[in-house]
Design a protein that fits this description.
Layout: E1 2-11, H1 17-27, E2 31-36, E3 42-48, H2 50-62, E4 68-77, E5 86-89
Parallel strand pairs: 2-5
Antiparallel strand pairs: 1-3, 1-4, 2-3
Length: 90
């Protein structure tokens, strides 16, 4: 099992990035959360099977159709199993 904490920069707010991130995370059976940051980035935590988390990271590097991802900073953390679902934080 794997956990990553990511910070995504570029044109990633106002393009349904959070909603599409949630949809993608659920399709990969991941738990965690996603939120917008005041500086224009998107922050997320993903937990699940290693291959599924890796696939989610590939998705994050592209994002939804109207997003323009400039950079994805990935911090690997210890898996905690603390989440029951994947949610959007507002």
């Amino acid at each position: 099992m794997k956990r990553v904490h990511v910070f995504i920069s570029g044109m990633v707010q106002g393009v349904f990035f959070r909603a599409n991130t949630q949809k993608a995370a659920l399709s990969f059976s991941l738990t965690g959360w996603v939120r917008n940051l005041p500086d224009g980035r998107v922050e997320a935590v993903f937990e699940g099977k290693e291959g599924n988390v890796d696939a989610m990271m590939e998705w994050c590097r592209k994002g939804p159709p109207f997003a323009r991802v400039a950079d994805v900073k990935v911090i690997e953390e210890s898996f905690s199993g603390e989440f029951r679902q994947f949610s959007i934080h507002y």
